[in-house]
UniProtKB/TrEMBL annotation:
Organism: Hymenobacter aranciens
Pfam family, any one: ZT_dimer
Matches recorded under PANTHER family: MITOCHONDRIAL METAL TRANSPORTER 1-RELATED (PTHR43840:SF15)
Compartments reported by the entry: Membrane
Ranges annotated as spanning the membrane: 12-29, 41-61, 81-104, 116-134, 180-197
Keywords: Membrane, Transmembrane, Transmembrane helix, Transport
The Cation efflux protein transmembrane domain, residue ranges: 12-205
Domain Cation efflux protein cytoplasmic: 220-288
UniProt record similarity statement: Belongs to the cation diffusion facilitator (CDF) transporter (TC 2.A.4) family.
Membrane topology: Multi-pass membrane protein
Name the UniProt record assigns to this protein: Cation diffusion facilitator family transporter
Length: 337
């Protein structure tokens, strides 16, 4: 099955499940009149809106590049996460206020056994579907599916907490447990809404994904050739599931254009083979200078001016800087110029 089709089907699954579970939770609230159950139901309404928007974002992210979107439409997935986080945060504020009022003015809870049964059912369904979406989202590199799955997983935890509150009220007769549970859920929802907003802002502002950058550098280091004297100014941008990578690679200045082209093509191909997503990579070739001789392993170099001292191992610290590395012959310490 094509990746885009699978993503859309999972998005539809999330939307249908969310809508069905909201109905069950509001029915549970009608039976119990529990503030904790109402809190859980209100939070689940957000699931329906966010699942719908996530499905739309998956559709847009799957569209091919065009003249207006040369890097594709993948950024919409970060907007989806931000939209979801904003709604969750707003819902958390309302729930926090409502729960505070309920804790100050508690009211009786009826039919807690029915409430526990219905909420437990929704928790199991949300947990299973959320787990499926998270695993599929990571495999398909879809942050929308991962975010949607995490929301359902959080919803499952909320339902379990609400069920626990009903059990406590039923066995102790202390109705304040209901409002207290709702208040804690409100705080929990606020924190998770903020985290989703933070992640969306990071993606939209192209904040460095240290894990992905490290993976790219490690692959270049593992496949390193003598002609690849030095790499710097390496950047990785994520557009939905796709990656845009660019860097500067220092190579022997006496190489022909054909030799340079072959080396750059090999670099691009090995990086594409490393990631199971579409990778767009641009490598800018820099001619070497005599200052690089002391870190260059090029055999039988016809223009070498200084003996080799040691190789600079590329890592997250030095490969992302927009500066060439070299070892001064009179000073074996690493310097950057």
């Amino acid at each position: 099955m094509p990746t885009t089709t699978l993503k859309r089907r999972l998005g539809v699954l999330s939307l249908v499940v969310s809508a069905g579970l909201v109905a069950i939770k509001f029915y549970a609230y009608r039976l119990t009149h529990s503030q904790a159950v109402l809190t859980d139901a209100l939070e689940s309404i957000i699931n329906v809106f966010t699942s719908g928007f996530a499905l739309y974002s998956i559709y847009l992210a799957g569209l091919p590049k065009d003249e207006n979107h040369p890097y594709g439409h993948g950024k919409i997935e970060y907007l989806s996460i931000g939209f979801e986080g904003a709604l969750i945060f707003i819902a958390g504020l309302f729930i926090f206020y409502s729960a505070t009022v309920s804790l100050i003015h508690p009211h009786a809870v009826s039919k807690p056994d029915w409430g526990v049964a219905l909420l437990s059912l929704t928790a199991v369904v949300n947990f299973i579907v959320g787990l499926v979406l998270i695993r599929a989202g990571k495999k398909l590199n879809s942050i929308s599916l991962v975010g949607d799955g995490q929301h359902l997983y959080i919803d499952a935890l909320s339902s379990l907490a609400s069920s626990a509150a009903l059990v406590l009220v039923a066995f102790t007769g202390i109705v304040e447990f209901d409002g207290g549970a709702a208040l804690l859920l409100g705080i929990f929802i606020l924190v998770n809404g903020y985290r989703m907003l933070r992640r969306a802002v990071s993606g939209l502002m192209d904040e460095t994904d240290a894990a992905t950058v490290t993976e790219v550098i490690a692959e270049l280091q593992a496949q390193r050739r003598p002609a690849w004297i030095d790499v710097h100014n390496l950047r990785v941008q994520r557009y939905g599931a796709n990656l845009h990578i660019d860097c500067h690679m220092q190579m022997p200045y006496y190489f022909t254009l054909e030799q340079i082209h072959t080396e750059l093509h090999d670099i691009e191909e090995l990086i594409r083979a490393r990631f199971a997503v579409e990778v767009e990579m641009f490598v800018h070739a820099d001619p070497c200078t005599f200052a690089a001789c002391s870190l260059c392993l090029m055999p039988n170099c016809p223009v070498r001016q200084h003996p080799f001292q040691h190789e600079v191992e590329w890592d997250l610290h030095n490969a992302v800087r927009n500066q060439r590395h070299h070892l001064k012959p009179e000073n074996p310490g690493l310097s950057i110029s």
